[in-house]
Amino acid sequence: MKAVPFTFEIDSPDFIPSTYDNHIQRRLSSMKGQYLDQDTYASLLAEADPLLYEVYELQRPTVPGELLHGISIVHPGKVGSEYYMTKGHFHEVLETGEVYYCLKGDGFMVMETPEGEWAVEALYPGRVLYVLPRWAHRSVNISSDEDLVTFFIYPGNAGHDYGTIEKKGFRKLVLARDGQPEIVDNPRWGQAARP
Ligand code: F6R
Ligand code: ZN
């Protein structure tokens, strides 16, 4: 791990950073229970396990004072009428904020608190989004042909709680209707993990 100030460029093709430590790839199989159309999810998975999104991380110590950062790339695609999206998570240290800066594409950040508040914010190039402490967050790519690329940065000690969303899902979903994204209540909320 570097012990001097360091830099990286993100203007390379496909927005892959010039330097990174971890490259995480998440496929359809990691989204069990999250998509509304469970039959389509199962039939797509029976054929292949497409890559939904990738994260390029720069490694730093997971302690207060450090800032973890990197690039998130959600590819275009749908499961039924629901767009490709990230798993989404709360931070383990719930009182942790995170900044996203959209570099490319067209999408939404779907957010909610444990108390049931929710918000959906557009992501487009040049837009900065501050995800407040306590808010779970999931990026959704609503483009039919372009990656959704964001730079993210958050405190080193935040940790990730994926389990809550894996079990319950998000309260809101983004679905395509007549070619347009629509925010709807998730009828499976609270039981996402159930087949
Ligand atoms: C980190 C963060 C992003 C996401 C990335 C992938 O706290 O919010 O770096 O990790 O967009 O999404 P998840 O982690 O939900 O699979
Ligand atoms: Zn986060």
Written overview of the protein:
With 195 residues, the protein is mainly β. It is globular and about 50 Å long. The protein is built from two helices and 13 strands. The termini are far apart. Strands 1-2-3-11-6-9 form a six-stranded antiparallel sheet, with no helix packed on it. It has one domain: Jelly Rolls (Sandwich). The site of zinc ion has 5 residues, from loops.
Bound ions, cofactors and other small molecules, one mention each: fructose -6-phosphate, zinc ion
What is the distance, rounded to the nearest whole angstrom, between the alpha carbons of the first and last residues?
A: 42 Å
Give the CATH level 1 class: Mainly Beta
Q: Helical proportion?
A: under 10%
Low-confidence stretches: none
- How many distinct folded domains? 1
Beta strand count: 13
CATH architecture: Sandwich
Radius of gyration: 16 Å
Structural class: mainly beta
CATH topology type: Jelly Rolls
What name goes with the CATH superfamily?
Jelly Rolls
Q: What's the shape?
A: globular
Number of helices: 2
Strand content: 35-45%
What is the average of the pLDDT values? 96
Order of helices and strands: EHEEEEEEEEEEHEE
Order of adjacent strands in the largest pleated sheet: 1-2-3-11-6-9
Largest sheet: 6 strands, antiparallel
